[in-house]
Amino acid sequence: MNIIITDCCNRACPYCFAQEKIRMSGDTEQAHALADEDFNYCIDFLKSSNERALKLLGGEPTTHPHFVQFVEKALGQGLDVTVFTNGLWSPDVLGWVEVCASDKLHFLFNVNEPGLQPGDENRRQAQSLACAEKRGMIGFNLYRMDFDVRFVVNLIERFGLKREVRLGVAHPIAGQENAFVPDADLPGLGERLLEQLAHLEEHDILGTLDCGFPLCMFPEDQLGKLVTHTKSNAYSCCGPIIDVGSDLNVWPCFPLSALLNVNLRDFKAYDDLYAYYEQKLSAVRGIGFLDRCLTCKYRIRGQCCGGCMARTLRNWQQNGDVAVLERFK
Ligand code: SF4
Ligand code: SF4
Ligand code: SF4
Is 238 in the pocket of ligand 3 (CB under 6 A)? Predict the structure, then answer.
């Protein structure tokens, strides 16, 4: 379960998977920020659900005025805290991370290719990565066919980060426009990714695939490389992830953030929320975004999730079922 502690982001990535729910102006005055009592409620909810992991997201979570207090409180209660960040930290946050000695605090840095972002962002990210060291891991989103993720080798070695890269593929957002990889381009993207994973593996760095990768985006005769060049053994999976917004509004995951919004206070525990989304999305989960998914052996045997449900819904919509999203509101 992810807690979105602020809807403010100080960056504007073209593929932003969160854009239905966030503001990219960087204006913290206008932000919707999670209130202290609601943060306490989230912690209690997690603990009473026997969950020990707290994931903090935004927008950019470090722009929340009480970010440091929130993390200190969660660490003090024995939770493992992972901060999903773009690394554009204020001097106060930088200073705090530098002195925080907890081994239960981790950072997942969403980085873009250095040549595609302003020099100032590269400089600020470098400062944050230097503070995080082995507590930091790189995350990279694939949204362009000519992506090149090999630059992470330099970052990982220079700053002593985890020798792992979390890779996401940019999905469409149901009911919104964003930059994502069209269905027809996925195989080309998969082939390029395998080539670059081989380069990372030569440097002792493994990939971890995020949710929604269709198995058939990789050439069948090269699937073995997924095994040797990645850390997890779930190559094609789909949540629910479950995101909690700054007003305790909950949605299944960012690409489906316009759908099935509920309130955290209406559920007793995480398992109830999970079961709710499993049931509500059962009509679309695992059906697949391509016609051929229906008879695909990989889907039938549970080896492929059929791609991201936001892709499936978008295709249904574009193929004539224009009101499909309404059925999930
Ligand atoms: S850093 Fe994250 S939340 Fe901010 S614009 Fe980029 S993808 Fe969106
Ligand atoms: S629909 Fe599934 S694959 Fe797509 S983002 Fe949500 S959890 Fe991930
Ligand atoms: S289920 Fe669909 S997306 Fe997955 S491998 Fe088969 S055809 Fe591809």
Answer: no
Question: Is there an atom of ligand 1 within 6 Å of 110 CB?
Answer: yes
DSSP string over 63-90: GSTTHHHHHHHHHHTT-EEEEEE-S---
Q: How far is CA 302 from the centre of its chain?
A: 22
Distance from Cα 255 to the centre of ligand 3, integer Å: 19
Question: How many domains is the chain built from?
Answer: 1
**Which of ligand 3's atoms lies nearest the C-alpha of 292?**
7
- Cα–Cα nearest to 186, from 152, 150, 216: 216
* pTM, rounded to two decimals: 0.95
176, 258 Cβ separation under 8 angstroms: yes
Asked if 142 and 181 count as a contact pair (C-beta separation under 8 A), the reply is yes
Q: Is the CB of 253 under 6 A from ligand 2?
A: yes
Given a cut of 80, is residue 26 above it in pLDDT? no
CATH number (domain holding residue 125): 3.20.20.70
pLDDT of residue 41: 98
Phi/psi of residue 289, nearest 5 degrees: -95, -5
Convert the pLDDT of each residue in 39-85 to its tens digit: 999 999 999 999 999 999 999 999 999 999 999 999 999 999 999 99
Q: Can you tell me which atom of ligand 2 is nearest the CA of 281?
A: 1
Cβ of 241 less than 6 Å from ligand 2:
yes
Range of the domain at 58: 2-328
Alpha carbon separation from 80 to 102, 106, 203 (Å, rounded) = 10, 8, 29
Whether omega before 224 lies within 30 degrees of 0, making that bond cis, reads no
